[in-house]
Amino acid sequence: MSMWLSCRTLPFRLAVAGAMLGAAAPATAQDQLHVTSPDGRNEVTVVIRGGRIHYSLQRDDRAVIQPSRLGFEFRNEPPLGDRMRVASTATNSVDETWTQSWGEVREVRDQHNELRISLAEEGAPGRQLVVVFRVFNDGVGFRYELPEQPGLAEFEITGELTEFVMADDARAWWIPAFQRPRYEHLFRSSPVSTLDTVQTPLTMEFRDGLHVVIHEADLVDYAGLTLVGSRERNRTLRAYLAPWADGVKVRGRTPFQTPWRTIQLADDAAGLSPSVLGLNLNPPNALDDVSWIRPMKYVGIWWGMHIGTMTWSSGPKHGATTANTKKYIDFAAENGFGGVLVEGWNVGWDGSWIENGDLFSFTEPYADYDLPALAAYARDRHVGLIGHHETSMGIENYEGQLEAGFDLFEGLGIRAVKTGYVGDETSHGHAHHGQYMVRHWRKVIESAARHRIMLDVHEPIHDTGERRTFPNMMTREGARGQEFNAWAGDGGNPPEHETILFFTRMLAGPMDFTPGVFDLLIKSVTGTPRTPEESRVRTTLAKQLALYVVLYSPLQMAADLPENYENQPAFQFIRDVEVDWGKTRVLDGKIGEYVVVARQERDGDDWFVGAISDEEARTLEVPLWFLPLGRSYVAEIYADGPGAHWRDNPFPVKISTRPVDARSRLTLRLAPGGGQAIRIRPLN
Length: 684
Prior knowledge:
- By secondary structure, this protein is mainly beta.
- Among the domains are: 12-90 and 109-280, Beta-galactosidase, Chain A, domain 5, CATH 2.70.98; 497-684, TIM Barrel, CATH 3.20.20.
């Protein structure tokens, strides 16, 4: 009796007599196993060939990933994956909806079919391996499990054999791995066959328009994933893990689970966002009470350091003084912002702080900074201080003070902390995103949660969906942000940069990009505007507004100096824009060219639309189909003004209003390097 079943009929196919859906089934070494997505479009096939386990992926019967190897290499042990047979299989289907504490969408549907394959090694040492596949309508996740077993207790992984053999020489958007400054590179694009060693998420566009993103989810006690191309230029990408100082990639003890390897699929670029595949592969919220976790907009003593009007270190231009902080607190209170970030408040910034990570104190402020008084001053004005912990990769120093530092902030009512990790490796030589650091970041997240503190992590490991389990992990950097526009000699970010970030870095999770700079030519430093060839903000003013909608973060900064917002009508949009969303709709977009996004506030009826362009001027027609039928709205439009151009005339903003409803269409005219920001509110 054959059990070959059409993938359009059942989500699982096994060439196994008597296999039952949802139950374990015996299997032989040459079985083909299949599992499809609930909509039947995506199908994973797993097969054992010559003792090696391979998987492949199809979408609509077209190959996406050709047969690709799975398995591990160990120190002082033979590889696991060369002499395998299928011992048993089990299947499961899930369809449930869960609610985020905050996010790009309120409700997330988790609908997938799961295939669990238990493998046994033939011959000594007779080890066991489990591979689990979950197939969703928007992609695939798979991971390894090493059960507790006599032949494998403690282990040291020296290589993960996971491959992604791409079926098309797709165009990839990538940044390099293991090069300074970590994730903070401009994205480049090239065929998959030409890639060397790159970070994830890796976004690819097939020639037929299919978009594929490779990343990982639920990274807890493992090394961060990068991808290595093939020297044979054969479209093969192999998993590469950031190492410990001695070269070992992962240390562990059975039972053990790896992170999920994720393959997101979409028919076009707009279909990639909002990405929830990684969230669905993380465990549910582990915190009993999340009432203290509150998305917000904030200002801070930060931009002045980058443009040179202030310093982190003590001295005549010290930014973190009591008087200066009070000015920022007053500004935040007057404009309805929830927080004030203060960098450089603590002892340790004098001298070469980038090289002196062991000298920071996380409890002792500088003499000109009255931390308790400022915390009280902020609290009286319904504003919260955002603490700052820069480690400079002095991890042992930071962990030795971690509890004391969080105790101090918790006692003062400080509910958010920005951490920093400037540096490429630890003092002991462990990689910036290896297992040692992954364990550290998880320790910080869990400690912060115990102290009821939200986190904004800079120079982080890439986001893998931790915010579902620990929603105090709010946002992070992990890409080239606004500060690169300030640094002399760097050149700044080109106009296309944010249109690429949306379809690459932002698919991992929220980013603290720090938008909202109004002094686009950075005239505030010397009184002389910077030229287009110098480091400066390469956007129009309207695009800076639109970034609040396009580049999602639950903590959004108004990055400029407070005085640069004075007498600026466009600042009203930053006052009004929300940071927590109930619904997100990507209306249009093409990687590296333009993006149009609409988001509805989480607990209200207002919608916000953001549109951004690269260096080209564009006219886009946007139907407002996402509005409820039968309701009348007013659109408050902040558009590029006449003659606006990022290069030589970035400031004109045309502010207008017009009535709209679900049948309306808006014509968005974007200047070169420009944008448009729109608030749509109910008429009454």
